[in-house]
Amino acid sequence: MTEKPLVSYERRPVRPDTDAPLVAYLILDDPERRNALSDTLLDQLTESLVHAADDPDVRVIVLTSSHERVFSSGGNLDAFADTQPIITKYAGLKRFPELFRTLTSISKPVVCAANGDVLAGALGIALACDLVIAKRSARLGCPEINVGAFPFMISALIFRATGRLVANELMMTGRLLSATEAAEAGLVNRVVSDDEFDSAVQSWVAEIAGKSPLLLGLGKKALAATRDLPLDAALDYLQAQLALAFTTEDLSEGVRAFKEKRAPVWRNT
């Protein structure tokens, strides 16, 4: 008997139009375990991301959850205390950095639609996405310290998203932030009331999908490449990327469409 996938993959048009761009919805779908980040779920999520990245019809990728109140509860606690050899556990830990690197290396925008609590390792997943939109009722945080663990793997992502003192408080106290508090700390882009969440996600995704896929991809690559570079090196890299953008048809089309007061027709070249 084939086991039910823990990550559902759905392609949806951004609008009802038959020729509208497509969005890939990757839905964490293990509600009985509150979408705990098991090895199987992490493997399926990474595979689904690669599949969406390679799909030429997909403009935007959305990560969300089938659970009504939880995006993901984070790492599988049972695995923390099992009796597997340390070397086996260490080898398994590569799934988290592999997933984070996949999220940042994909040329397409990735949106985390946090329709529930985003906890522990799942906070790292959210912060590795390009944009985060959250339900007002959602909570975010890393409570690992409460069970004698520490959020080692996601600390680098937290420090890149918020200030040192906020990051330390999150990791050292295990306190959960409301979605509004998380937005004030720079961990969330937008907070939406629960009853308006789905329509807000669709509207936001449609707006992003209407941009040039080529320029979004070049821009995302540039952001990832220069994030940790010294200023001089970053400016040299960005100058080269701007020069590359000038050679694209999409940049010329975007300017023409703006002057002609019409919607651009992206050629992705």
Task: Provide structural commentary.
There is one protein chain. With 269 residues, this protein is of the alpha/beta class. The protein has two domains: 7-209, Alpha-Beta Complex (2-enoyl-CoA Hydratase, Chain A, domain 1), CATH 3.90.226.10; 213-259. It has twelve helices and ten strands. It has helices spanning 39-54, 77-80, 86-92, 95-105, 121-128, 152-161, 164-173, 179-184, 197-209, 213-226, 231-246, 249-259, and strands at 7-13, 22-28, 58-65, 70-72, 110-114, 117-119, 131-135, 139-141, 177-178, 190-192. A six-stranded mixed beta sheet has the order 1-2-3-5-7-10, with helices on both faces. It has a four-stranded mixed beta sheet with strand order 4-6-8-9. Strand 2, helix 1 and strand 3 (58-65) form a beta-alpha-beta unit. The longest helix is centred in the first third of the chain and has 16 residues, at 39-54. It is globular. 35% of the residues are buried. GO terms for molecular function: catalytic activity. This is Enoyl-CoA hydratase/carnithine racemase. It comes from Mycobacterium rhizamassiliense. Belongs to the enoyl-CoA hydratase/isomerase family. InterPro entries: ClpP/crotonase-like_dom_sf (IPR029045), Enoyl-CoA_hydra/iso (IPR001753), Enoyl-CoA_hydra_C (IPR014748), Enoyl-CoA_Hydratase/Isomerase (IPR051683).
